[in-house]
Amino acid sequence: MILDEALNRLGQPDNPEDLFNTFSQLAQDLGYAAVSYIDSRPGPAPGEPDLFVRTTVREDFLHTYLSEGYMSHDPLMVMAKRQAAPLTWADVPEFHASLQAPSKLDMPARGRAKQDAQRAIAVMTSAADHGYTQGYVIPTHTVDPQGRLASAVVSLFWTQKPEGLISPDSAPAWLRLSALYFHERVVSMRLTPVTPPPTLTQREQEALVWASRGKTVEETGEIIGVSGRTVTFHLQNALEKLGCYSKIHAVAKAIQMGLIYP
Question: Which residue has the higher pLDDT, 135 or 147?
Answer without folding.
Answer: 135
